[in-house]
Amino acid sequence: MTERQPRNGVPRETGRHQERASAEKVREAVSEAVSGVAPGVLGSTESVFAAEGLTPIAEEAARAARVLHPEDHRMPRPSRRRVLTVANQKGGVGKTTSTVNLAAALALHGSRVLVVDLDPQGNASTALGVDHRSGTPSIYEVLLGEMTLDEAAAVCNRSEDLLCVPATIDLAGSEIELVSMLNRESRLKQALSDDALDRLDVDYVLIDCPPSLGLLTLNAMVAAPEILIPIQCEYYALEGLSQLLNNIALVQSHLNPSLHVSTILLTMYDGRTKLADQVTSEVRTHFGEIVLRTVIPRSVKVSEAPGFGQTVLTYDPGSRGAMSYLDAAREMAVRGAATQQAGQYASEERR
Ligand code: ATP
Ligand code: MG
């Protein structure tokens, strides 16, 4: 086939060549990220590549089918309930976006999930379409001991298996109120009692933290054994990380011996920049296996979804953003199941 000649002498295909080159870069980064993963862990990566022969619309439909038909793509439910704190004191790195989308993906695919919104901004509550006007039962009353966790939990309108304890603006003053309270750093831990969580019957609890290392984040670190750190694929991403890790180490040695960083998720990956690749490889070199192989791309659909009180999984299930959060959730579920199983074998052997 002959290439059509442009009028201005610049080959018409140049733009597309550049696009292809950058897409190639992303593909290389993704395939490098998935190399060595056990079969079935990253189902979607397969489908993204397998769908290459399809038209864009067919490709999108194939992705939506994966997101919305959980019966074909179930994720393992944890044998023991998992509680994860999503933290990074750096603002705007994707903590809330990751919390709600991972929660939605897990809930759509066979688990029951509770999101605890621990940020006075209430962004997670907004994204999940849960009422969080001042006076609504919320995490504020729970921390003050005026209400149990299950009393404050609301069911999200998009999924029966996705629950949220919202944050209202009342929470803004709570850091000061908590200071003078007894057990000020373990009030969330007390609230996340086995009884309350059994009543809610949840497999996962995801706690969305504010962008600070204050008393609210401390409560979250004391309440959960696992920490998930979202890291934005940008230049300053690693700055402040050592401070976060030092704090985690301090909490571990003084308040919560089981605390550990179980998961790092790279967010807002922009395949058109070399920088994103550099950050990705630097984080992988630093943190190794705890970094999920799935990387969340920068995507307009992901940022639009909260404006409609939705996660990207229901807002645009055919988008790459939805697909990548589904992948990340699956990876998290599979790794968690493997870790729990290994722990079980080890304790059986010790007996
Ligand atoms: P804060 O520290 O203020 O709580 P955060 O760490 O929770 O912020 P988010 O609110 O999740 O970060 O994300 C910050 C902004 O980036 C939001 O406007 C969000 O919509 C946008 N965003 C997050 N992830 C993506 C993505 N993958 N693609 C495009 N935009 C994104
Ligand atoms: Mg947030």
Write a short abstract of this structure:
The chain has helices at 14-34, 43-50, 56-68, 95-108, 123-127, 139-144, 149-152, 174-179, 187-191, 194-200, 215-223, 241-254, 274-287, 300-304, 312-315, 320-350; strands spanning 82-86, 113-117, 154-155, 162-165, 204-208, 226-232, 260-269, 291-297.
* Order of helical and strand elements: HHHEHEHHHEEHHHEHEHEHEHHH
Strand proportion: 5-15%
Bound molecules: adenosine-5'-triphosphate, magnesium ion
Coarse structural class: alpha/beta
Whole-number count of domains: 1
- CATH architectural group: 3-Layer(aba) Sandwich
CATH topology, what is it called? Answer: Rossmann fold
Straight-line N-to-C gap: 71 Å
User: How much helix is in the residues?
Assistant: 40-55%
Model regions low in confidence, pLDDT < 50 over at least 5 residues: 1-13, 19-51
Number of strands: 8
Query: How are the strands of the largest sheet arranged?
Result: 3-4-2-5-1-6-7-8
**Main sheet record:** 8 strands, mixed
For CATH, the homologous superfamily is named as: P-loop containing nucleotide triphosphate hydrolases
What is the CATH domain class? Alpha Beta
Shape: globular
